[in-house]
Amino acid sequence: MSQPKIRIRGLKKAFGSKIVLDGVDLDIEHGTAMVVIGGSGTGKSVLIKSVLGLITPDAGVIEIDGEDVLKAHPKRARELRAQIGMLFQNGALFDSLPVWENVAFGLLAQKRIKRASARDKATEVLAQVGLDASVADLSPSELSGGMQKRVGLARAIASEPAIMFFDEPTTGLDPIMGAVIDELIVDCVKRLGSTSIAITHDMASAQRIGDDAAMLYQGRVSWTGPADELMTSTDPVVDQFTHGRSQGPIKMALRK
Length: 256
Known about the structure:
Layout: E1 6-15, E2 18-28, E3 33-37, H1 44-52, E4 59-64, E5 67-68, H2 74-81, E6 84-87, H3 99-103, H4 105-109, H5 115-128, H6 145-157, E7 163-167, H7 175-192, E8 195-199, H8 203-209, E9 212-217, E10 220-226, H9 236-243
Parallel strand pairs: 3-8, 3-9, 6-7, 7-8
Antiparallel strand pairs: 1-2, 1-4, 4-5, 9-10
Helix pairs in contact: 5-6, 6-7
């Protein structure tokens, strides 16, 4: 394709005197999976929330399919962002709703499906993430952490989005369940032909789900490369972060 699916240039965001993003440049090509890594507080969540429209940047460009959503008419910006499916870090399921209604929530809210057929659609999507139809009528509180992640993934893919975001998809899961969730993510992204961005601290997960990787450091993208080179990169910042070294260019502020 002549242009990336998502193009970010000069993205800046500060909260008071704290500069979080200080000129982020990043391209995510059509049909590829990008993983964004970086220490806590480096702006990974602020970056994807800016693309989602949950945070308004102070400056910069965010293009989806060549259109700057920050300058677009609000209606057009909503249309462009409607392509995005999101798996939140802790599932973010609605405890007051049964699983099937959580899965179909976006479709119902956008009036893309009638309520009478929403449960059947939800069970169909649940099957795609390895959950039995009997789960549909349970409440989120009755599910294990791994099952909640699967339900969250089902909700994210229910609308067959062209873009998918994953916020720390393996947080709180044991290594085996984390690998299972990663396999489901890869399968869903490939089956839908989606473009995806995942933010993660889990290097094993990053290599499983990512085609490309980007390192956020001091408010900017300091390194990009293939995800399978994360553990062998000679970049000093990437090397320190991926191997969890206490010594290196990244200095952690410790409270006394």
